[in-house]
Write a structure and sequence with these properties.
With 310 residues, the protein is an alpha+beta fold. The chain has helices at 3-6, 25-33, 94-99, 109-114, 120-138, 211-223, 272-280, 295-304, and strands at residues 38-43, 46-52, 55-57, 59-60, 71-80, 83-90, 104-107, 150-152, 157-159, 166-167, 172-181, 184-189, 201-204, 227-238, 243-252, 266-271. The chain folds into two domains: 3-124, no CATH class; 172-304, Alpha-Beta Complex (Nucleoside Triphosphate Pyrophosphohydrolase). Helices cover 25% and strands 31% of the residues. Strands 1, 2, 3, 4, 5, 6 and 7 form a seven-stranded mixed sheet that branches. Strands 11, 12, 13, 14, 15 and 16 form a six-stranded mixed sheet that branches. The chain has a three-stranded antiparallel sheet with strand order 8-9-10, with no helix packed on it. The chain is globular. The structure holds zinc ion (ZN). Residues 142, 144-145, 147, 160, 162-163, 165 line the site of zinc ion.
Length: 310
């Protein structure tokens, strides 16, 4: 993986997850009780950060959390060196109450990464916690029998006591690709994008499908472009709510575009020079690339600036 991809938002995660500790209740209790244990705190979907003078701190000491709200779930994320890192969720209503305080800020995971509000080493664990907590919120009941299920294995499993089914957190794979034909690449825009922004096409990988097949299907469905060779570049956790973005380059076999307007507002081929101007923010029509924390930006750079080929 080259530098462009290793520095993307949520990619770097220095935690040793120590799955062997997840079912050792006493060991986890001792880890959480350690003075240097750190806890990421969420109220619903929002992160709570501490203000410390001009700086922001994302990790609370274990004993500080109960003063913020009622803890609904405790997840063990792993060890950062010797330091145990947990995530805890308090009631969603606490977000509003804490946002009026001068000593905290309440903010979403995306803004923390875009604005670089926390050290890089905490951004990956933040994504880990956000995706996992979201899964718990949406999977309170057993999918097999409908009875309430409970958190187990320090947050890495839910168990149904009624039928003994075990449920594991899910990650939703999404292919995101740049189809290229000679000196041109295919970009599209959805109506919800910022005005003038074009990005790589993307779509969910479906059951029974390879990454390559998903790239080819989505490119054909959304833009009518057939593709041949597909090359994997890198991936990025994208906790909105629980995706893994799988970045690829694809060799386009035709360059006439047929847009699926239910998915895209526009799609067309752009020259390498145009993509460079979009990445620099100097395109004469004001067209823009996605923000640098997103894998689409790095895929576009790997083709337009580094000369990557499918
Ligand atoms: Zn059940």
């Amino acid at each position: 993986m080259n530098d462009r991809f290793s520095k993307l938002g949520y990619v770097m995660n220095p935690l040793n997850r120590r799955a062997d500790l997840r079912d050792q209740a006493d060991a986890l209790k001792n880890l959480r009780a350690q003075k240097h244990a750190g806890v990421l705190v969420f109220a619903g979907d929002q992160s709570i950060l501490k203000r410390e003078g001009e700086a922001l701190e994302g990790l609370f000491a274990s004993h500080e959390v109960s003063a913020l709200g009622t803890v609904h779930a405790t997840l063990f994320l792993g060890l950062h060196g010797e330091r145990p890192i947990f995530a805890e969720e308090i009631e969603a209503e606490a977000a509003e109450r804490l946002s009026t305080r001068d000593d905290f800020i309440v903010i979403d995971t995306r803004s923390i990464a875009v604005q670089g509000l926390l050290p890089e080493a905490l951004i990956g664990p933040l994504a880990e916690a956000k995706a996992l907590l979201h899964w718990h919120r949406k999977h309170q009941f057993c999918a097999a029998c409908g009875a309430p299920s409970r958190v187990s294995s320090a947050g890495w499993k839910r168990v149904c006591d009624a039928c003994t089914a075990e449920h594991f957190p899910r990650t939703d794979p999404v292919v995101i690709m740049l189809a290229i034909k000679g000196d041109k690449c295919l970009l599209g825009r959805q109506s919800r994008f910022l005005p003038g922004m074009y990005s790589c096409l993307a779509g969910f990988l479906e059951p029974g499908e390879t990454i390559e097949a998903a790239v080819r299907r989505e490119t054909l469905e959304e833009a009518g472009v057939r593709t041949g060779a597909v090359r994997y570049l890198a991936s990025q956790p994208w906790p909105f709510p629980a995706s893994l973005m799988i970045g690829c380059l694809a060799e386009a076999l035709n360059d006439d575009v047929t847009i699926d307007h239910t998915e895209l507002e526009d799609a067309r081929f752009f020259t390498r020079d145009e993509v460079r101007l979009m990445l620099e923010g100097t395109h004469p029509e004001g067209l823009l690339a996605p923000q640098p924390m997103a894998i689409a930006n790095a895929i576009m750079k790997s083709w337009a600036l580094d000369g990557g080929e499918a």
